[in-house]
Amino acid sequence: MAKPDSLGQFEQLVLTAILALREDAYGVTIHARVQELARPKTVSLGAVYVTLDRLEDKGLVTSWLSDPTPERGGRARRCYRLQAAGDRALQESVVTAKRVWDLVAGVRGPKWAKDWGKRRASEARS
């Protein structure tokens, strides 16, 4: 398979959510985790499902239907898991983001980086 294009920011959020959720990664839980990661922006459930389909087409995630559950009226859930290619793509994105952060923090200085961290922590609590 050809190497997939680099990941967009939203694809990174969806892959990160799947990684974090492990066995509990299905549409609604992925959406909730992406919503947390994207805060304060709002994220539609439809955008998550479109992105999941695209990631599966790229070979970065795989999906399957769970057994039907009584909580869902006997319906199955579509569960998702990172493929090896998805894990590698996410790792590459993290390395790139770290390089960008290091450069920006280096140019702006340690006080800026510290202040930025405080702002982000305050936003996370609210």
What does the model show?
The protein has 126 residues and is mainly alpha-helical. It has helices at 9-21, 27-38, 45-57, 84-108, 110-125, and strands at residues 61-65, 78-82. α1 (9-21) crosses α2 and α1 crosses α4 (84-108). The longest helix is centred in the last third of the chain and has 25 residues, at 84-108. The radius of gyration is 17 Å and the shape is globular.
In short:
The chain is mainly α and 126 residues long.
**Rg, Cα atoms, Å:** 17 Å
CATH homologous superfamily classification? Winged helix-like DNA-binding domain superfamily/Winged helix DNA-binding domain
Shape: globular
**Total separate domains:** 1
Proportion in β-strands: 5-15%
The major β-sheet equals: 2 strands, antiparallel
Q: Helical segment tally?
A: 5
Any idea what the CATH architecture is?
Orthogonal Bundle
- Give the strand line-up of the largest sheet: 1-2
- The helix-strand sequence is HHHEEHH
Structural class category: mainly alpha
Here the CATH topology equals: Arc Repressor Mutant, subunit A
Per CATH, the class reads Mainly Alpha
The parts where pLDDT drops under 50 for at least 5 residues are: none
Distance between the termini: 43 Å
- Estimate the mean pLDDT confidence: 89
The percentage helix is 55-70%
